Amino acid sequence: MSKAFEQQGVEDLRKEIDQLNHEILALLNRRTTLVKAVRAVKDAEGRAMPDPGREVAQVQTLLLENPGPVTAKSIERIYREIFRSAVEDSVPERPTPMLAGSRPMLRRGGVMVGDVQVGGGAKPVMIAGPCSVESAEQMEETVRFLTDMGVRLIRGGCFKPRTSVFSFQGLGLEGLQILSDTVKRHGAMSVTELTSIEHLQDTAAGADLIQVGARSMFNYELLKKLGEVQRPILLKRHFAATVEEWLMAAEYLAGHGNDRIILCERGIRTFETQTRNTLDLSAVALIKERYDLPVVVDVSHAAGRRDILPALARAALAVGADGLMVEVHPNPALALSDSQQQLGFDDFSTLWASLFDRRGGC
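-> structure tokens emitted (362 positions)
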């Protein structure tokens, strides 16, 4: 260290460092402004950006001219970051609808399903029932149990789009009739999935809440037709959809006249193999924070296994979900579909007691 620096106190040296920080900041901004100008010219000429060869040559020149004490390794690291940041900052800003916080066609607050409010400050709700309607006896036993517990929204799959053609495909219109009759008899509301425009009118007549399944989220013709039906819609997120694509699907419904939409997060596909999907709770938090739209979480399809459902349910409510969807079956081991993720009555009773009171809310 030179004698000139030795004669300065620590505070004087720090003041000089602070001044250099300001000068470096000004130079970085000036450099980025120039990079932006270069990008504008290159974009106009159709030339690539950046130029890796030029960046390497620049670093080599600086290394030859570097008097120290900054090491060559540090010079390479610092300028690599400067080059990367300048190129990123030079990209022209584009409007991003997801960050705008505004979805003018979508209804904020709550959505009524019969006399049950979902979202809008109401207590979280429970949607429960078997993966598939299998028989009148199965539904009678399940609906009686759930309504005695206080559940008002009963799910049951009638048309089942399965990955394997050899899997149980549901009872179709027969199952829809069983679901509708049983649920009405017990004073509750029915929730079931519509898979095709062909069954739109029957489903609208037999279901109180129409579910658009994950595989149908990108079926825009189906969404357009559902927009013309005055039934509340439960819109599930596709397992490979971004939040923006999910909201765009909701806008198809709203744009065609139906803004009574409840979003449903059911997990996205990742590289993980120990669960059926990966539950994206950040999407739930984002939707509640940015848009105040009703959103429930299907923990059964997210996990694909019953042992971690209680933990996922608690986590979903903790981030602000307006409700849960849970699959319940009288005898999960004998279920015709998704047996490993359905809860038996005892397990559901334990979950219900830990989350909900008998009024149907947390």
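The chain has two domains: 3-89, 109-355.
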